[in-house]
Design brief:
The chain is an alpha+beta fold and 410 residues long. It is 35% helix and 19% strand. It contains 15 helices and 16 strands. The radius of gyration is 27 Å and the shape is globular.
Length: 410
C-alpha cells in the first residue's frame, strides 16, 4: 500500500516474492514458524496475504539476536523487546500454567496465615488444610506441602517480603495531571480486603454535598461504585506479580480516574476482545479465590459490567490501553448524555417530581406506580446509582428513609 494515498500497489512478480518471504521467515525465526502465505488477486494486480496462527512452540525469536535479545512483542502500534519477566510468562502460558500456581519450595505451609484465610472464607465455608490444596493455595512438592505463589500473594504471613509490589498505591491529584498530590494512601492489606480499602479512600474524595429541605449531607459518587470496584478488582486479579518496580496504582484527578496494573493483556487477547467479554485469567489462584469469596462474578463479565454502569450514569465507556508493560483503565467524569430511563423509571421520577420537594417513601412510590415494594426498591437503587435519585436516611432499615429527585438538590 502506498504511503499517503493508501492505494494498493500490489506485487509484480508475486510468486518470486512469495518464495523470498517464505525463505526469510524460515531463516530468520527460531523455533521454526510456518505461517499461511496466500496469493490473492486485487483488481488488476496481486497481493500476498500472510496469516500467522498461535504456535505450540512459542515464544519465537529472531535467530541472529538469540532467545534473550531477539524476542519482541507488539504493544499498540510499536514493537517492544520483551524483558526476562515477559519471556518467562510466555513460556508459562505455553505450558498452560499460571505464575500464581507455581510452588514456593523454599517455604513451608506455615508461610500462609491460616487464621486470616479462614476469616475471609468464614462466610462461604470452613477452610481446612485440604481446602488450601483444593484452592491451590498450597501444593505438594517433593513429598511436602508448600505454599504456592498465589497462596503467599493472598494470605502470606510475610508476603511483601517475597512480592514487594503486591499492594495498591492510591492518590488524589489536584487538577488533571500529577504535579500536585493532595492526598495518598498505601494499601498493604491482604489482597481480598485491599480493593474495599482503596475504594474507601476514593469515596472520601468523590463525594459532594446536596441540600434537600433540612440541610443533610448526601454522598453522591462521581463515578459508579460498581465500575470503580470492577476496575480495581480486575487490576488485582490480572496484575503480573512477576514484574518488579511498581505496585497497582489508582489515581483520581479532577476529570478522570485511572487504575493501572503491571502486566499487559494475556497473550492472544486484544482490547477489542475484552470489550466483548472474552477473558483469559492470568492468575488462576487469585481468580478462583476472589470468585469463591464473592468479590468477582463470572470471569470476563467485569469489563461489560463496568461499561454498563458508566453508560447508565450517562458517562463515557471506560478507556482501556496498554502503556509500556502496564495495563490502564480510565473512567471519565464527563457526562456525555443523560442517563437512559424506561417507562417505569420515568414513572418513579414523575412521582418524586410531584412530591413538591418532600420526597417519597418506598411504599408510597410503589403504590403510585403500581409495582411491588421489592421491585420498586431495585429500581430506586439503580436510579440512586445513576445519580438521578437521592436517598435520605440513616440506613437501609430506616423506616423514615425517603427518596428525592436529584434535580431537587440543585
Amino acid at each position: 500500500m502506498e504511503d499517503g494515498t493508501r492505494k494498493v500497489a500490489g506485487i509484480r512478480n508475486v510468486l518470486a516474492e512469495e518464495e523470498r518471504l517464505a525463505n526469510l521467515i524460515a531463516d530468520s525465526i527460531t523455533p521454526k514458524l510456518v505461517p499461511s502465505i496466500e496469493v490473492l488477486p486485487w483488481r488488476k494486480t496481486q497481493v500476498l496475504a500472510v496469516e500467522v496462527y498461535p504456535s505450540s512452540n512459542r515464544p519465537h525469536y529472531l535467530t541472529r539476536l538469540g532467545p534473550e535479545q531477539g524476542l519482541f512483542v507488539r504493544v499498540g502500534s510499536t514493537n517492544r523487546r520483551a524483558d526476562s519477566f515477559l519471556i518467562e510468562e510466555m513460556r508459562r502460558y505455553n505450558r498452560i500454567s499460571s505464575f500464581d500456581e507455581q510452588p514456593m519450595p523454599q517455604l513451608n505451609s506455615e508461610g500462609i496465615d491460616f487464621r486470616a484465610a479462614s476469616e475471609f472464607f468464614k462466610p462461604a465455608r470452613k477452610l481446612t488444610a485440604h481446602g488450601l490444596q483444593t484452592l491451590k493455595l498450597t501444593a505438594a512438592y517433593q513429598g511436602k506441602t508448600v505454599p504456592t505463589v498465589g497462596g503467599i500473594l493472598l494470605f502470606g504471613s510475610d508476603r511483601l517480603n517475597y512480592f514487594p509490589d503486591a499492594w495498591i498505591q492510591v492518590g488524589r491529584f489536584a487538577g488533571r495531571d500529577r504535579r500536585r498530590l493532595v492526598d495518598s494512601k498505601e494499601v498493604r492489606s491482604y489482597l481480598p480486603a485491599a480493593a474495599e480499602e482503596a475504594i474507601g479512600f476514593l469515596q472520601k474524595h468523590m463525594t459532594r454535598e446536596a441540600v434537600i429541605g433540612p440541610v443533610k449531607r448526601v454522598d453522591q459518587w462521581t463515578y459508579p461504585v460498581v465500575a470503580v470496584r470492577e476496575a480495581i478488582m480486575n487490576a488485582i486479579v490480572h496484575a503480573d506479580y512477576a514484574q518488579q518496580g511498581a505496585p497497582i496504582r489508582v489515581a483520581l484527578f479532577d476529570d478522570r480516574l485511572e487504575v493501572e496494573n503491571p502486566g499487559l493483556l494475556p497473550f492472544g487477547l486484544t482490547i477489542e476482545d475484552i470489550r466483548k467479554g472474552v477473558s483469559k485469567l492470568r492468575n488462576r489462584v487469585l481468580g478462583r479465590v476472589f470468585q469463591e469469596l464473592g468479590l468477582i462474578e463470572h470471569w470476563g463479565s467485569g469489563i461489560q459490567r463496568m461499561t454498563a454502569a458508566c453508560q447508565d450514569r450517562g458517562l463515557a465507556a471506560p478507556h482501556f490501553e496498554e502503556i509500556g508493560t502496564h495495563f490502564r483503565v480510565t473512567l471519565s467524569s464527563k457526562r456525555i448524555h443523560e442517563p437512559p430511563t424506561d417507562s417505569r423509571d420515568q414513572a418513579i421520577l414523575s412521582a418524586l417530581a410531584a412530591s413538591g420537594g418532600q420526597g417519597r417513601s418506598t411504599a408510597r412510590i410503589a403504590k403510585e406506580i403500581g409495582m411491588s415494594p421489592r421491585a420498586t426498591r431495585t429500581r430506586l437503587a439503580s436510579l440512586v446509582e445513576r445519580g438521578l435519585v437521592v436517598e435520605i436516611g440513616s440506613g437501609p432499615q430506616d423506616p423514615h428513609r425517603r427518596y428525592h429527585s436529584a434535580s431537587d438538590s440543585a
